[in-house]
Amino acid sequence: MRRLVFSSLLFSYSLLAQDLKSYQQVIPQTRVSFDMVAIPSGSFVFGQTKKTQVSAFWMGKTEVTYDEYQLFFEESRDPEPRPPKEGPDAVTRPSPPYIDFTLGMGKVGGFPANSMQQYGAIMYCKWLYAKTGVFYRLPTEIEWEYACKAGAEIPSKDLADYAWFQGNSNEKYHQVGQKKPNAWGLHDMLGNVSEWVLDHFESDPTARKDSPVFIDKYADAVVRGGNYQDPANLVRSTARMAADPIWNRRDPQVPKSIWWNADAPFVGFRIMRPAKQPSATEINSFFEKYLN
Question: Which residues contact 282 (CB under 8 A, 6 or more apart)?
Fold first, then answer.
């Protein structure tokens, strides 16, 4: 067991960074892009009781799609693309999955990437940094919930307008961005696929400090928001669940893959970007501590 806290890296950016602008990020040497939405600083009630101040940041407008994730998966182990100056080394890609995680829907057209472990999601962020020179990571539970609530909870009577869940999904995930966005312009924060965050499970998340705690990268990482299989009462901004070993029960590899969850088509992720980019040393330290 290891216990590491990353308070300076994750929460040092300015509370006054309200002048962020939403933007589109093109992945270099491809025609693939994704949108990042500026989230203002503010305070909110985390969970049901803890009033929390949150700094400004950018959040992915949608869940990471197969169009994006597949670039990472297919990239050669060759040292290209060259990392930015003082950036990370080239990143190896995931081991090939032995089953079709797309439920037959394919990997183009804006479907959310799914079935990766938290490790795979963080490795994608490392690869994205090597490609773009911009530090992206998974949000913390606090950041995720703040962005999801966007100032107010979505009324349960309106859930079908904003989310794919058991009542309207036809037992499958859907292309991102088909439902209404929340008040800050983020799609599918609720439902569709649940989303990895940096934190690992604590029964009372409001008791933790501002910075996420890293305990064991192979166990108890948290997903948020509910998914297309869940009933409406589990698709809400405070919905959270720890990774379950049963998600990887059919993996025939010994040891089991650190990249894939063979039985979790309902799990994906979205990325965030701090308002102030950490130094190259801090970024490398972050990925080293999370991935090694």
Answer: 8, 9
Torsion sign, CA atoms 221, 90, 125, 178: negative
Q: Where does 11-152 show beta strands of DSSP type E?
A: 23-26, 33-39, 42-46, 50-54, 57-60
What SS3 state is found at 273?
A: strand
> What tokens does 78 get?
């060759």
What percent of the chain has pLDDT above 90?
A: 66
* Integer CA distances (angstroms), 127 to 21, 87, 170, in order: 24, 10, 34
Q: Which CATH number fits domain 4-291: 3.90.1580.10, 3.40.50.1000, 3.40.50.10860, 3.30.1330.60?
A: 3.90.1580.10
Domains of the chain, by residue range, sit at 4-291
The residue ranking higher by pLDDT, 209 or 161, is 161
If you ran DSSP here, which 8-state letter would residue 85 be given? Answer: T
The two three-digit tokens of residue 245, written as one number: 């070993």
Count of residues in the chain = 292
Look at 1-5, 56-60, 95-99 and tell me which has the smallest mean pLDDT. Answer: 1-5
Q: What per-residue confidence (pLDDT) applies to 200?
A: 87
